[in-house]
Each structure stands twice: as C-alpha cells, then as structure tokens.
Amino acid sequence: MTVISAKISFLLLLIVAADLSGYTQPKPFYKEDFSGGKIPEGWSIPKVGNWDPQWIVTNQPYPGSYKYQQQAPPIASSSRGYHLQFQAGYFSDEDVDAWLKKKEYPDGLIISAPINCSGKSSVILKFQETFRWWDYHPADTSGLFVGISTDSIHWQQWDMRREIKENSDMLMPLKEELNISRWAANQPKVYIRFYWKGIQAWYWMVDDIELVEAANKDIGIVRLLSHSETGNQFKQKDTLKLLIRNNGSKTITDNITVTAKMDGNDLAKQMVDAAIHPLKSEEEREVIFAGVDLAVLPVHKLSFKLELPGDETAGNNSLNETISTATAVLGNLSKWEKIDNGILLESGVTRLKILFYQDGIFPAAILVACPHHTITVRTCPAHYTPDKPSSITVIFNSLISRFAAIQSIFIPWSHPGYIQFT
For the residues 69-78, what does the mean pLDDT come to? Predict the structure, then answer.
C-alpha cells in the first residue's frame, strides 16, 4: 500500500468513526431539567377538582404523610437537584377515607409548553422518574400517566407504573424512553402531560425531560420486571425477568446477546433470536434468566448488558440494580467478640458491629456488612453490661437498611440462635 492510499484509508476510517459516534450520543432538540427552580414558562396546571393539589418544582424530598412517614430520597434523576414533584399523599393524608367517601382523589396534572417537532421524522421522549403509589381503593381509571398531544385536548398516554408493585421503595430513578413518533413526528406543536389520577398516595418525581430523534438501530433495556428494589421474596430457584425494547426506527433482524452478573458472578448468557423473529420498532420482549439462587443472600447486586451488532445508541444498553428481600434468616449466631467500644456479631456472611457511646440506656449505632454492602442503621435504646450481656433489641430503619419496613432483631445472649429479620 502506498503512502497516499494509506492516508486515504485512514481518512475514510475517521469519517466512519465520526459518523458512528454521532449515533452513539443523539443530541436532544428539546430539554427541560427544571434547574430554574420554578414551573417553566408556558407550562400549565389545569384544575381537575375542588381541591388544590399541584405539581411543584423543588429540590426537597417528599415530606412524608399518612402510612409513609419517612421522607423519600430527593433523587428524581442522576443529575439530582430541582425536579418536578407531585405530593398526592400530602394532600389526602389521614383524611384518605373521607376522600374515598366523597369518591374523590387528589388528582393533578401538568402540561408542557408546545414543542416544535417539525422536520423530525422520529421522536423519542426521554425522562427520569421515581414514584411510590398506594393500591388503596384506586379508581377504575387510575394511573401515573404520561401523555402526548398535538392539540392539548386529545391524548395518547401510558401508565408508567407498569409492573412496579404498590408501596415499593424506589431508591434509584428509572430511565424512561418512549417512542412517540406516530404522534409527534413532523408536528409543529407537541405537548407533554404528566397526570396523577385516581390514586390516594404517595408521590411522583420527574426530571431531565428530553426529546431526541430516534436512531435507526437502537436496542435498550426498559427495566427489571421480576423484582423490585425492596420487599422481595427470594427463592433458591428464582427467575430474573428483564424487559428490552427496540427504540430504533427500523426493525431489528440481528440476534441480541444479553449478559448478566449477580454479585460479580456471571449468569447464563441469553440470546434473543431476532434473526428468526424480528423485533419491530417500539416492540418489547422479555428475557428470562431461570434457576437463579437468590435465597443465598438477603441483598444482591445485579447488572445486565445488551449487545447488538451496529447498535447506534449504547447509553441504554446496561442496567445496574440492587435488590433486597423483605425478610431473611441470616443463620446461626456464629461469633460474638467484645471490642473497645462495643461488640461484633457474625452470622454467616453478615457482620453486625454495635458501638456503644455511653453506659446504661443509650442510642447505639450499627454497621451491617454484607457482601458488597456496608449499611449504617440505628438501634433503639438498649441495656448493655459488657462483662455479662443478657439481650439486646435492634431496630433497623427501613430507608437506610433497604428493608421493606421497620424491623427488629432480638438476640438472646444466653441461648445464641438465629438472627431473623421479621
């Protein structure tokens, strides 16, 4: 090869690489991150009843309310900061049954200013969200709806709860992508609506809204269907179910490889046979990892990754999620060791370090160290005699320890047995 031909080949390579990199990071033609700290200009909050629950922009967590007294994490997106929030439970609170008696719900909606999608042959709506909802006598038409309209009157909408169970903690935001091309492509005015409807509590946080043009070839992970972050019932032969979607504008006809890790260990690789069963644009498909032993530990770190030849958008190809069980028997109390300012307990793979800051009745601090996790929790006041321990009751705070409800452990020192979360 001559020097000239080598230079030409190199330039062609650069051109191809630059072209592919453009697909990898689609630039949004619309973006709203609520960093201004107030409802954006042109957005509206129509009245939906004889009450006044309204969407707000805030950088504070959900304040807590009836049946959910603790504050929700103030994390609506990976960018954090100001976000859109609806506080249904704060309005209904302890009067929830009075609301139901009147057949009323703390509904509320907010509509964006019109967005120009002219000249966009395809449109993907992206946003991040966290929510917690209560399945207490919901209305027949209830949902956490995201809607699209070209006239702000007629709406195409999706219930974002999907398989998320009621009363589920959501400590990390969901990254959502909806292909709205059928309704928004080439339209001079497109409205986005967020509508809390027919549910008595608790909250919904939304942030980092974007509109981008769809890539031709784009496979993405939607969410883990089989398990929530907390409150699960782990089994020895469990099943992980992952939902994936063709976010691109073209049908996928190449096979998709799905890999998974649990606590750093590889699970069996799965193949989505799109060569025989093509995946159309907007079509979703479930991927199953069967026979997984989740009962071995109360907490697991999961990671999933998609591989598709020629995928133009890599940012939605992976998912990292931590899941925990609602209750877990940790095993025999196998070790008790006195340390300078407390005691160290061991039960199988779990360690509990109880630190005492003064004698007698006191609030103690605890560190729970599981594989891949060190969790700080709090205890209730407890009696402690260093030379002759009798018993101690430990109260685990649910939000910090990632368990579903406030939980206690009773440890009889004279008869060491099982440490059980109940």
Answer: 68
In this predicted model, what pLDDT tens digit does every residue of 178-223 receive, in sequence order? 999 999 999 999 999 999 999 998 999 999 999 999 999 999 999 9
Task: Spell out the residues 6+ positions from residue 32 whose beta carbon is closer than 8 angstroms to its own.
Answer: 40, 112, 208, 209, 210
Check whether residue 63 and residue 192 sit in a common domain.
yes
Q: Sort strands 202-212 and 265-266 into parallel, antiparallel or unpaired.
A: unpaired
Which pLDDT score is estimated for 220? 95
Give the pLDDT score at 198: 93
Residue 230: how many other CB atoms lie within 10 Å: 24
Question: Are 304 and 340 found together in one domain?
Answer: no
Count of other CB atoms within 10 angstroms of residue 389: 16
User: Who's near 229: CB < 8 A, 6+ residues apart?
Assistant: 168, 169, 170, 171, 172, 321, 322, 323, 324, 402
Q: Which residue do the tokens 């967005």 mark?
A: 115
Q: Which residue has the higher pLDDT, 368 or 78?
A: 78
Look at 65 and 115; give whichever has higher pLDDT. 115
Cα–Cα nearest to 214, from 293, 117, 288: 117
Average pLDDT (280-293) is: 95
- State the total domains in the chain: 3
- 189 and 318 inside one domain: no
Q: How many angstroms separate the CA atoms of 319 and 221, rounded?
A: 7
The encoded tokens of residue 40 equal 């954006």
Q: Is residue 236 part of a domain?
A: yes
Determine the pLDDT at residue 83: 94
Length of the chain: 422
> CA nearest 287: which of 257, 326, 325, 262?
257
> pLDDT at position 181, please?
94
Check if the beta carbon of residue 94 is closer than 8 Å to that of residue 163.
no
- Output the DSSP codes for 219-282: EEEEEE-S--SSSB---SSEEEEEEEEE-SSS-B-S-EEEEEEETTEEPPPEEE-TTTS-B-TT
Residue 151 and residue 50 share a domain: yes
340 lies in which domain range?
329-420
Q: What's the pLDDT score for residue 330?
A: 59
Residue 47 lies in a domain: yes
